[in-house]
């Protein structure tokens, strides 16, 4: 399977924060979810891919073309957390502007999306709800037939009904196996529904990049009392939440001791417990 | 590039009303000074100048407010082209205001004023080019909000220098009145049209240099 985005030896430093990614491939035909806490490096990674920031080192290619070249972005659609057009503009203005930017701009496709999303063409953006603005951003990002869609917290602050509608569009877009989505989101339930792969970034490093289904089979949540906890090999504990009566452990599925009650771990559980574990390890150092 | 230029022109549509009011205001002032033919024409030039210098600030203000820079840089356009578009939009507006001045001149002529000289068209263009060449790299470097004070300071500096020079010349004149008169005579004896043409060439050169500097700043900017 070819890669839509390839990242090699990427380093970007801001003061005491460093994003360092030795290698990351985003295969064609998949939805890659990017997760991590605030300040973990998700937006820095997306900005690096879009060449919005000057990286210290490393190479990034989009469909085999260096991201430094403007034409690499011809087949990329981008949706940010906010619409980046002046609030006095209309959807019609957005259409006129982007028609003059993208070679493959498709007016009919854009109008099709705006009709599907029930977006008024003549109303000013300041009169749009947040959901409508996001839908317009998405329509604008898709109307030039991109092969790669990059979303930076695009679904944050949107109600579940609209989010679901947007997720359906993503799933429709990804039906073409040449299409790829890279989506960073705090709303992990959305990624759990739609993503094929999950990349977890913490403190500027990739903790894991796994197929979602493999990841969710890889770990188990184990609930145990204090006595049982004492019998668990500490090296097998990936993450731990303790309470008065015992603990909830995140463990590799194949390391759960016989007789312990375990349940499938969600992506959010995995992320939170690993972050806590890393924070605790740092405190102990 | 067409899309980026269109974006700025659509943004300017929002300030078109302000521009229209300015035009009417200065045309009205011109009519009120019909007795002084040169005065009527100079109001038109001032109007052109005010609009020309308002444009780069308005465009950059709209961009900054909505975070357009981030989106613009994610489009399949080099940053150099994005900067070049802004400079091109400024030239389009300068061309437009010059046309308005020309039409205004025709109107005033119909009411019996003398026709404006060639230099009267060039002077607002020259000052606009100088001003835009000066402020645009500052806006790209610091953004509209932060650069507002720098722009005011930069614009005040020449005025203060001129004021200082006049005070100095006034003091000097008290001591040696003939040298002051000589200086003024020397200044007024400079042929106007060649001076304006030379200033236009220098302003155009500065405009290009300013664009290259803005491109350099914007290329290295973290968005």
Q: Can you offer a commentary on this structure?
A:
- The complex is a heterodimer of chains A (285) and B (223).
- Helix content of chain A is 32%, strand content 30%.
- Chain A has helices at residues 42-49, 91-99, 107-116, 130-142, 160-173, 188-194, 212-218, 226-231, 267-284, and strands at 3-14, 17-27, 31-35, 57-62, 65-66, 76-79, 148-152, 180-184, 197-202, 205-211, 219-225, 239-243, 246-252, 261-264.
- In chain A, the strands form three sheets. In chain A, strands 6-7-8-3-9-10 form a six-stranded mixed β-sheet, with helices on both faces. Chain A has a four-stranded antiparallel β-sheet with strand order 2-1-4-5, with helices on one face.
- The longest helix of chain A is centred in the last third of the chain and has 18 residues, at 267-284.
- The two termini of chain A are 41 Å apart.
- Chain B is mainly α.
- Helices cover 87% and strands 0% of the residues of chain B.
- In chain B, helix 6 (118-175) packs antiparallel against helix 7.
- Chain B starts with a helix and ends with a helix.
- The model of chain B has no long low-confidence stretch (mean pLDDT 82).
- Classes of the chains: A alpha/beta (285), B mainly alpha (223).
- At the A-B interface, helix 2 of A face helix 1, helix 3 and helix 4 of B.
């Amino acid at each position: 399977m070819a890669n839509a985005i390839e990242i090699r030896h990427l380093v970007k430093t801001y003061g005491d924060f460093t994003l360092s990614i030795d290698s990351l491939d985003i295969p064609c035909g998949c939805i890659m979810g990017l997760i991590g806490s605030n300040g973990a490096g998700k937006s820095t990674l997306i900005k690096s891919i879009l060449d919005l920031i000057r990286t210290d080192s490393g190479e990034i290619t989009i469909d085999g073309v260096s991201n430094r070249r403007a034409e690499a972005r011809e087949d990329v659609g981008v949706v940010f957390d906010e619409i980046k057009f002046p609030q006095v503009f209309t959807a019609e203005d957005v259409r006129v502007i982007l028609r003059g930017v993208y070679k493959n701009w498709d007016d009919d496709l854009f109008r099709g999306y705006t009709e599907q999303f029930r977006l008024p063409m003549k109303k000013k953006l300041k009169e749009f709800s947040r959901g409508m603005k996001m839908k317009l951003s998405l329509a604008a990002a898709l109307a030039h037939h991109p092969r790669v869609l990059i979303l930076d917290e695009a679904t944050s602050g949107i109600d579940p009904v609209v989010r679901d509608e947007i997720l359906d569009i993503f799933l429709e877009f990804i039906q073409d196996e040449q299409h790829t989505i890279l989506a960073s989101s705090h709303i992990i339930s959305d990624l759990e529904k739609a993503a094929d792969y999950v990349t977890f970034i913490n403190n500027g490093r990739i903790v894991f990049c796994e197929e979602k289904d493999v990841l969710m089979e890889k770990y188990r949540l184990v609930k145990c009392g204090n006595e049982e906890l004492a019998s668990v090999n500490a090296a097998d504990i990936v993450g731990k939440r303790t309470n008065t009566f015992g603990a909830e452990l995140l463990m590799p599925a194949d390391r759960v001791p016989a007789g312990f009650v375990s349940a499938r771990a969600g992506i959010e559980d995995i992320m939170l417990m690993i972050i806590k574990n890393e924070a605790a390890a740092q405190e102990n150092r | 590039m067409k899309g980026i230029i269109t974006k700025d022109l659509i943004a300017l549509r929002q300030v078109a009303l302000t521009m229209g009011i300015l035009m009417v205001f200065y045309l009205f002032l011109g009519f009120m000074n019909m007795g002084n033919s040169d005065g009527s024409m100079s109001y038109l030039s001032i109007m052109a100048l005010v609009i020309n210098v308002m444009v780069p600030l308005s465009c950059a203000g709209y961009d900054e407010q909505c975070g357009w820079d981030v989106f613009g840089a994610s489009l399949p356009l080099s940053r150099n082209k994005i900067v070049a578009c802004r400079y091109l939009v400024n030239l389009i507006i300068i061309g437009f205001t010059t046309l308005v001045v020309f039409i205004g001149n025709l109107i005033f002529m119909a009411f019996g004023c003398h026709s404006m000289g060639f230099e009267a068209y060039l002077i607002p263009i020259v000052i606009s080019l100088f001003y835009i060449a000066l402020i645009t790299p500052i806006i790209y470097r610091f953004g509209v909000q932060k650069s507002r004070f720098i722009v005011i300071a930069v614009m005040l500096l020449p005025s203060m220098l001129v004021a200082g020079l006049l005070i100095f010349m006034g003091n000097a004149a008290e001591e040696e009145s003939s040298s002051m008169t000589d200086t003024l005579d020397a200044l007024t004896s400079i042929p106007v049209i060649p001076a304006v043409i030379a200033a236009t060439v220098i302003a155009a050169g500065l405009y290009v240099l300013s664009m290259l500097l803005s491109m350099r700043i914007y290329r290295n900017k973290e968005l």
